[in-house]
Amino acid sequence: MAITRSRRLVVSFVVTVVNYEYCLYWSFYQDGTIKFDVKATGELSTNPTTHATTPPHGVLVSPNVEAQIHQHIFVARLDMMIDGIRNTVSTLDVKPVEELPGGGMNPYGQGFRLVETPLRTTTEAQTKPSPDTFRVWKISNESSIHPTTKEPVSWKLIPTNPCKLLASPESYISKKAEFAKNSIWVTPYNENEMFPSGFYVLNKGAARNGIGNWVKEERYIENEDVVLWHVFGMTHCPRIEDFPIMSVE
């Protein structure tokens, strides 16, 4: 057994979007772990208000100055290649053993097991987190078998910041940001499918070129060259300490 100090390579960059500075960090660890962090800083979006107390859609951060409650939702486009380009994505859920206490498989009534569900089509792959079953997603290569487990080698996606879109399904935002309807999407690789909200986001017809349109025609994704789209983010309820220049959310 060898024990060494962990090291990581961090690739970072900063994007300025209107009033926000997004600091993005990809961390690559020696054990194969890849971690992604987004830090939001910069200036709050504010507006004048006549409310003397807490307004209904925001927070008073200064006299007659309101900072709106809002959401930041991101998508990571993960072009998976686990020991090759043909991969399968599955959900992994931890569930109690259904056998009653006293049975051979669950004598003390405290057993639980891992349930794997392969996602075979683009429709099945439209999935969300399940905190009750500690859901994670597994990307595996059926043609590459691990010598110890005798199972396909795989990589596990652990979502840490799922963010449900709070806008009404009939709203302009929901129609533009169809990608935010699910936490995970899986599509076959297509070099023309790069931007989940469409290439020209603000154009009237942009949504027609986004991920919602790509999955209207059901496509098979089992044992294929796949792209996994992971949607995550934060719902930011501003505090008075965030004004005028916020630290990090």
What report would you give on this structure?
With 249 residues, the chain is mainly beta. The protein has a domain at 71-90 and 117-246. The protein is 4% helix and 41% strand. The strands form four sheets. A four-stranded antiparallel sheet has the order 1-2-3-14, with no helix packed on it. Strands 9-8-10-11 form a four-stranded antiparallel sheet, with no helix packed on it. The chain has a three-stranded antiparallel sheet with strand order 4-6-5, with no helix packed on it. The radius of gyration is 22 Å and the shape is globular. The model has no long low-confidence stretch (mean pLDDT 91).
Give the key terms:
249 residues, mainly beta, 4-stranded antiparallel sheet
SSE topology:
Blueprint: E1 8-17, E2 20-29, E3 34-43, E4 46-48, E5 58-62, E6 65-68, E7 70-79, E8 88-96, E9 112-118, E10 136-145, E11 152-157, H1 172-176, E12 184-188, H2 211-214, E13 226-236, E14 245-246
Antiparallel strand pairs: 1-2, 2-3, 3-14, 4-6, 5-6, 7-13, 8-9, 8-10, 10-11, 12-13
